[in-house]
């Protein structure tokens, strides 16, 4: 995720992309950090908004966590084993996808 919070990770990603593309260092232009958009919600929309952390959605969260955990395992155990897959920071990427099996609503 290129959220602009960790410049060393984003700098490493850019340098790795340049090497992968056989470009000179710093050939890629800087990009503006992602900014989460703000929304203006209508009352009708607000009435349909759900809080996924509410107990009513526990079963849905469990299904999403199961799918996320299985996807993360497949990515790590099979997809990343291919010599055709290039990841700038494998440790960072794997640590992020391993979080897919944890409920963000659990405190």
Structure, explained:
The protein is mainly α. The protein contains four helices and no strands. The chain is flat and about 50 Å long. The chain starts with 6 loop residues before the first helix and ends in a 9-residue tail after the last helix.
Short synopsis of the structure:
This protein is an all-alpha fold and 107 residues long.
List keywords for this structure.
single chain, 107 residues, mainly alpha, 4 helices
Q: How many beta-strand segments?
A: 0
Radius of gyration: 19 Å
Helix- and strand-based class?
mainly alpha
Low-confidence stretches: none
Please write out the topology:
Layout: H1 7-20, H2 43-48, H3 58-77, H4 90-98
């Amino acid at each position: 995720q290129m959220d602009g919070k960790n410049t060393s990770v984003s700098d490493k990603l850019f340098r790795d992309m340049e090497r992968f593309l056989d470009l000179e260092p710093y050939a890629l232009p800087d990009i503006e950090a992602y900014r989460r958009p703000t929304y203006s919600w209508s009352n009708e929309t607000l009435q349909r908004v759900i809080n996924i952390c509410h107990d009513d959605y526990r079963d849905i969260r469990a299904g999403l966590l199961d799918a996320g955990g299985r996807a993360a395992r497949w990515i790590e155990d099979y997809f990343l084993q291919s010599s055709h897959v290039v990841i700038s920071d494998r440790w960072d990427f794997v640590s992020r996808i391993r979080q897919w099996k944890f409920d963000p609503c659990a405190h």
